[in-house]
Amino acid sequence: MSLYVIVGFGPAGAATARQLAEQGHSVRVVTKSGRSPEPGIEHVALDATDSESLIRATQGAAAVFSCAAPPYHRWATEWPPLASSLCAAAEATGAVLVMLGNLYGYGPVDGPMTEELPLAATGPKGRVRAAVWEQARGLHEQGRIKAVEVRASDFFGPGVTDGGHLAGRVMPRLLRGKPVSTLGDPDAPHSWTYLPDVAGALVEVAGEERAWGRAWHVPTAPWLSTREMVDRLAARAESGPVPVRRVPPAALAVASVFSPLVRGLKEIRYQFDRPFTVDSSAYEAAFTVRATPLDEQIRATVDWWRERLGAG
After folding, report:
1. Where are the alpha helices (DSSP H) in 142-288?
2. How far apart (Å, rounded) are the C-alpha atoms in residues 145 and 66?
3. 3-class DSSP state for residue 195?
4. What is the CB-side half-sphere exposure of residue 230 using CA atoms within 13 A?
5. Are 291 and 221 in contact (CB under 8 A)?
6. What gap in Å lies between CA 92 and CA 87, rounded to an integer?
7. In angstroms, rounded to a whole number, what is the distance separating the alpha carbons of residues 270 and 255?
8. Within 10 A of 266 (CB to CB), how many other CB atoms are there?
9. Mean local confidence (pLDDT), 183-196
10. Which tens digit of pLDDT belongs to each residue from 26-64?
């Protein structure tokens, strides 16, 4: 079995680490604060922007998974040094750099997003995410590193809490049968990527040399609007029909005065004001991971939130 290093232990990093550990691999997780060890997973505290420390932590690794992300409002300043350190570790150790990306880099587009679209984002967050991948791809093409990026739409599922648009702002209220609020048009078509499928795709491409050197979209179920997803989650929860309300633009404007996170959301409002759908057929034609059936996604998400809130 191999050693794999996961940088970051948010929902995607944790799911990836645990999947690898369940397969019998040695797993080392790098975070700033560290954590107590768990079965099959070693936790190491270090700053991943310190390339020398990261190189030492990744010696002997078959792959390094980039699953960390700076605070949302500091992407423009903190992503570049983190990406450079990850690339330096990949070059020094020979480990495959497996990057978790998103769809920001495309910017607003018409129609479903494919990997062939140009990275034409005009906002700072979209541009920095595009630049992170372009840096790694350039080094891959020069033969200096081995790199691949896996791009997901908005996460949801067990383990997704504060950062998800179908998570902490929705699920506790939904389970009580209370109205929920959504950013943008609740009836706009939207793709939702299930967290276990994200981990599955990251793990799969790490061992597939033919995947390297390009980006792939995580297998994702057919799109549904926010309202349709809430309806399905509420039906599973048996909490009755749950009203879905759009957050008024004026309320967002007021909140942005006090919240860096809300200010940052202005750039990606288009993702909720218009169709935002992903085409994952290229991945599905090449590899084995498939989107989990939607009914299973809904069941597992509701059951996980019930257990989480009950335990709390």
Report:
1. 171-175, 195-206, 226-237, 249-258, 260-265, 270-273, 281-286
2. 14
3. helix
4. 28
5. yes
6. 9
7. 18
8. 12
9. 96
10. 999 999 999 888 899 999 999 999 999 999 999 999 999
- d(CA 111, CA 205) in angstroms, rounded, equals 26
233's tokens:
């989650």
- Between CA 124 and CA 285 the distance in angstroms is 33
256-263 contacts: CB < 8 A, separation 24 or more? 260/71, 260/72, 260/73, 261/72, 261/73, 263/73
**Whole-number Å distance between alpha carbons of 176 and 190:** 25
Query: CA-to-CA distance for 267 and 28, rounded, in angstroms?
Result: 34
- Quote the pLDDT of residue 311: 57
Whether the model clears a pTM of 0.85, i.e. scores above it, the answer is: yes
Q: What's the pLDDT score for residue 251?
A: 66
The count of C-alpha atoms lying within 13 angstroms of the C-alpha of 46, restricted to the half-sphere facing its C-beta, is: 22
Q: Which regions of the chain does DSSP assign to beta strands (E)?
A: 3-7, 26-31, 41-45, 63-66, 96-101, 146-151, 154-156, 180-182, 192-194, 215-217, 244-246
